[in-house]
C-alpha cells in the first residue's frame, strides 16, 4: 500500500505550491495555449507570445520541461531544428489555461471599467 501525502498549496513547505506558481505564471499560460495547437519551434513560440524575451522563453521552457509539462525534441538536421510539445501531463493544462485565457478576453471591458472607477476614486 502506498502513502499519498495530503498536498496543500496554502502550506509554505508544500511542493504543490511550486507547481501552482509555475502554471499561474503568465508566460506559462500563454506557452501552453500556443502549444495546444501542436508542436512548435522556439521562433514560432517567440512570435506567437508577443512581448516575451528570448531569455524568458528559454527559462520558462526549461522549467516546463523539468516539471514534465513540455518535451523538447532536437532533430539532427542542418540547420538544427528543435521542437517543443506538451506532454501528456502538460495536455491536462490545456482546458483550464485555455478557459482562463477565454475568461480574460471575455471580461476585459469589465475589468477596464472597474480599474478606471477605482483609479478615479
Commentary on this structure:
It contains 7 helices and 3 strands. The chain has helices spanning 16-24, 26-35, 42-48, 54-66, 88-91, 94-106, 108-120; strands spanning 40-41, 70-75, 81-86. It has a 3-stranded antiparallel beta sheet with strand order 1-3-2. Helix 2 (26-35) crosses helix 6 (94-106). The protein is globular and about 60 Å long.
Topology (elements, then pairings):
Blueprint: H1 16-24, H2 26-35, E1 40-41, H3 42-48, H4 54-66, E2 70-75, E3 81-86, H5 88-91, H6 94-106, H7 108-120
Antiparallel strand pairs: 1-3, 2-3
Number of helices: 7
Shape: globular
Structural class call reads mainly alpha
Largest sheet: 3 strands, antiparallel
Strand order of the largest sheet: 1-3-2
- Radius of gyration, whole Å: 18 Å
What is the H/E string? HHEHHEEHHH
Poorly predicted ranges (pLDDT <50, ≥5 residues)? Answer: none
Features:
121 residues, mainly alpha, three-stranded antiparallel beta sheet
Give the gist of this structure.
The chain has 121 residues and is mostly helical. The protein is 57% helix and 12% strand. Strand 2 (70-75) and strand 3 form a beta hairpin.
Amino acid at each position: 500500500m502506498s502513502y499519498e501525502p495530503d498536498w496543500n498549496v496554502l502550506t509554505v513547505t508544500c511542493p504543490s505550491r511550486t507547481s501552482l506558481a509555475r502554471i499561474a505564471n503568465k508566460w506559462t499560460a500563454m506557452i501552453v495555449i500556443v502549444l495546444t495547437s501542436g508542436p512548435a519551434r522556439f521562433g514560432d513560440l517567440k512570435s506567437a507570445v508577443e512581448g516575451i524575451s528570448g531569455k524568458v522563453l528559454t527559462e520558462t521552457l526549461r522549467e516546463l520541461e523539468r516539471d514534465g509539462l513540455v518535451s523538447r525534441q532536437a532533430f539532427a538536421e542542418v540547420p538544427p531544428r528543435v521542437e517543443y510539445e506538451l506532454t501528456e501531463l502538460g495536455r491536462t493544462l490545456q482546458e483550464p489555461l485555455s478557459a482562463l485565457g477565454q475568461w480574460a478576453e471575455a471580461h476585459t471591458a469589465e475589468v477596464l471599467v472597474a480599474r478606471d472607477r477605482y483609479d478615479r476614486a
